[in-house]
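Handout, page 2. Input:
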Amino acid sequence: MTDAEDRDLWEKRYGEAQSVWGWAPNRFVAEVLGPLPPGRALDLAAGEGRNALWLADLGWRATAVDFAENALARGRAQAAEHGLDVEWVHADVLEYEPEAGAYDAVVIAYLHLGAERLGTVLRTAAKALAPGGTLVVVGHDVTNIADGVGGPQDPAILLTPDLVTGHLERLEQVESVGGLVVTRAERVLRQTDRAPQPAIDTLVVAHRG
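Output:
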């Protein structure tokens, strides 16, 4: 599938559904960022912006970036309905360049691109983190195909803790995007209403020193 076809697919999906993912934040994003004092947050490939909206409601200055205008339109409507201030950016995260060192939290949730392109987005995220900032990466784990439920069924685009941490280590060693310390890198279980067994996700949390 080409990038244009992928974009068209998501525009159609967000244009037809009432809400693709619901409005509650991802449970792991909430678990990691909920206890932190509000600052400036960047949600990359935000979709309808459920995590950005949740952060804004907690007092964060949130920016949501996605290439699907239909998704952003839904997010804007939700923000207006609830009186929340979110900056909505229509851009492809593979090309988007946020302000360097400006964000106290960066979220990448359920972005499945394949190893090389994931590395591009992780580099963007790492460069955007401010000193003391927190990076949260969560997505469907490769083991979810056989042992979990839902999610993409192509192992080439799914995550593992080692895949994500390997990219972050290379940023430190090869590309001089340093100062990141990984504090969590694990497979986590997420109960859904689709099946008795839980979905299996990769969760990686890193902090900039």
